[in-house]
Amino acid sequence: MTTNRLTILVVDDAPPMRRLLARWLETAGYRVEQAGSGAEALASIEASCPEMLIIDWNMPGMDGVELCRRVRQLRLPHYVYTVFLTARCGAEQVIQGLDAGADGFLSKPIQREELLARVRAGQRMLVVEQRLAQAARTDELTGLRTRRSFHDLFEKEWDRSSRMRIPVSCAMVDIDFFKRINDNHGHQFGDQVIELIGKTLEATCRGSDTLSRYGGEEFCVLLPETAEHEAAVWAERARAEIAALRIPAGDDSLRVTCSFGIAQRSDETVRPAELIDRADQALMCSKQSGRDRVVCFNSMCEAGRSRLKDASQTGDLLAGAIARDVMTPLIACLRTDQTIGSAADFFLRSRINSTPVVDAAGQLAGMISEKDLLAAMVSLDAWREPIRKVMKPNVLAYSEDTPIRRIYEFLCRVTIRRVVIVRDGRPCGTISRGALLRWFRNLVVSSGRVGNAWEILSGGDAEADARTHLASTARELARQASAIERAIGDRHSPISACAVGAATRMQELAADLLAHSRDNDELSDRAGMLQLWVLEGEKTAG
Question: Hey, which residues does 159 pair with through a beta bridge?
């Protein structure tokens, strides 16, 4: 930081003192601004923030101590080095000034060389602070903004968008199959890929756009004064340029692609974090839909129309229905602090393959599935780890009053199988493709336009087919029970080894029996009792 870049604001109610200090500082090459009161100084700082303040301690109205306190409370673009001018520098005053936020003191009467030495000392401190701030704002690998500095800038742009009522969009970008790149070519090559993708994205951005490395192989782009369809045009251009790259990899070259998620601020998004979350949901849809593509949040939710033919004659089955009508209520959720082992036990007991995860306040924090648990099955110690380490933090969630058509069209388009339904941020249910199918089936049957449930299940003589299937299931259950009995009678065969596998197979068969016997109360009761017996037997064998 050279002297001609340093701006010093001199605050003193005595004009002669201000002019004297200004002449000494300007002669030394510094830029100097003047203020005659604390209120005038605050207005000047907010309009054009200086690097250094020289403040008289005693001023009418707002004194130097109060001014210093207020300056420290402001959200300024950089640190402001502050020096007090005072006729007394006793211990009590020094403590009071330091507590208010002062960095140094100058005793009156002021000597020119002492003033300039104090300014040079402050300048050295400002250079160090500037380097630290730059390091905190800049990603070391790519030179782009860090996630934290991106959020700080986003808050300011959000406020400007609110005041001027102008659009703002956000894009989330993720390098496809990046783990595979690291595994096949090494982490150093992976860093080169991240750096190259960052430079390519930066080259496609406008001067008003802000690009950050959001984490790992993810980037986030802030697009001010940009509607969603305009952001999609930019994203498509950037996607094509990245896909055209050929990165040297030994004797060959590597083609890398990226997935993009776009979202525009709307009346429903009240905070920047919600807009980023929407872009992240669109990114998730982009990756689930095949990668190397651009997906917009609004089009993701609204694209696709009902596939029902001749809706005017058959009636719109989706009309008026909301998520609350279709969702499968959640009986229990896992917490972020529960262990991976307890999650595995929960899945086995409840016979589900995924469930939402909540934090200590009951708010939706993530999603965990059997696949996530399998990835953690590397050691017994891993099973004692909290599930927040393996859960997916990004969850597709809809409010319970969301029209079911919106969720239906989304699930029709993407490979995602289930979404979470929330009430005041707390998960209250899920809607899967299977839940939608059951709801459609029950709705069609209840409408009276088709025959009974057996006809819908398989057509023709469905009841006879179902009974044949039930009989086959019952015979297989009997065979498994006989196998367990023979193994228990064999003293050379460990009980746990023979019982656990057979009990697991019997659980599956009992569930199948239960599913096909809903219309017969006696069969359903017996199937339910069988499931309980199998579970008890499995615990005893363990």
Answer: none
Separation between Cα atoms, residue 541 and residue 503, nearest integer Å: 9
Domain count, the chain: 4
Within a domain: 109: yes
Rounded CA-CA distance 484/418 in Å is 37
- What's the farthest any 2 CA atoms get from each other in the chain? 108
Question: Alpha-carbon distance 135 to 91, whole Å?
Answer: 36
Residues 42 and 96 grouped into a single domain:
yes
Domain shared by 278 and 384, yes or no:
no
Measure the CA–CA gap between 93 and 57, rounded to whole angstroms: 10
278: tokens are 């929407």
Q: Report how far Cα 433 is from the mean position of its chain's Cα atoms.
A: 24
φ/ψ region of 29 (left if φ > 0, alpha if ψ in -120 to 50, else beta) reads: left
What is the domain extent for residue 12? Answer: 3-137
- Phi-psi label, residue 496: left if phi above 0, alpha if psi -120 to 50, beta otherwise: alpha
State the average pLDDT over residues 499-511.
60
Q: What pLDDT, in 10s, does the model give residues 256-282?
A: 999 999 999 988 788 898 899 889 888
- Does residue 322 belong to any structural domain of this protein? yes
Smallest Cα–Cα separation from 513: which of 470, 467, 479? Answer: 470
Would you say residue 183 lies in a domain? yes
